[in-house]
Fold this sequence. Notes:
The protein is an alpha+beta fold. Among the domains are: 84 residues, no CATH class; 37 residues, no CATH class; 57 residues, no CATH class. Helix 3 links the parallel strand 9 and strand 10. The C terminus is likely disordered.
Amino acid sequence: MNKYLAIYGKPRYLGLVEYDGDIKKGAALIVESVRGEELAVAVGEINAEQEAAYRLLRNASEHGDGMAKNSEPVVTDLTFMAFAAKEDTETAEGYREEENRILKEAKELLKPHNLEMKLIDVEFLRAKRKLFFYFSSEQRVDFRAYVRDLAREFKTRIELRQVGVRDEAKIIRGVGPCGQPCCCSYWLNQFAPICIKMVKEQNLALNPAKISGICGRLMCCMCYEHEAYHEAWEGFPNPGSKIKTPNGNVIIAGIDLPSKSLRCFIAGKGEVKVPRDKFEEFKETVSSGGEWVVPEEEIAEPVLKIQDFFPKCMQCGSHHEKATAEPKREENAAKRRPDGGEANPEQKPRGNKKKKKRRVKHEPQTIRDEHEDPREDVVQKVKHAAEARPPKEDKAAQDGGERPKRHFQRRRRPGAKKGSDNAAPAKSEV
Length: 430
């Protein structure tokens, strides 16, 4: 009896099917699961060792808080009934349109109940014997009254199944930050536990937007290379650790895994790169007060210099640009002329005219005596200017009378009328 791995349901459950004959990969099957009769797709034949490995796998279902509430086996046993005909597959495809309509109606029925739940998808079993609703929620939901309304509306058996946010992404499907379809939507059959320690060991930026998937959790690919990085970290000290020396502490600034080396900061000398196999020698040297000398074979000179990437005109600065700017300007001016001839010497050239600075004429400086105070010249100039100015005559004296007094218009209070008793009393002039 041969055993085959099959996928069934929208959440892409795994099942094992026993069959005496040969089942091709991708063949449509009619099987019976714990949910009832439904369609499945054959993945391939598996041996006894692979079956034992699948039997040991447990799928931890999580809810809103991200903690595993219970665990389910990854694979379940399926009973083979028959090969699906073309009519069965076409009928199943016709169910998809009806499921979309039911999902919209179910969301409208959910509004009066005020339940904190999010409907994800709807699935019909074969022959519409049962209708599954998948939803996500941050907490447990009492949906008994809501189930009765759904059964009354759609006239069939209703089952609501709560799933986590990772299962939600698996059902909805989508494209990850890498540009490929999400692993959970087409090949990943188990959600491995992922922690932030895996991200730190891989020296990735702790940016939630870069290390989180469309589900909002840490990306599943964080655990793919975790074992390789765990082995690479063996033999390295922790970053930030210190080595006591007579000249001060040497700090392990960082670790470069690709080159298998450490970056050690020495006070007064800066950062030194030390290979992992020579770290113990480095530690003994600096602990005893000696000076670590980097071997010459480890000092790698750059193969290419910056002069190799840029032309000489960019290296010499603006001198070359100024030299080539004038002929180009003359060439462009000749193209703009209608006759295309030479420029008229009498005609002033157009272009960016620079404003000439006004020259200030300075009076010739006279030789002064060293003991002469320069401030005396200023005092004398002011005195001469005051004497030359005509004296101001008093206008009142010219008119031959007293200077008239100015009358200022008084501001009245708002609401007070002229000549009323409420008006402010006038001030008497003395």
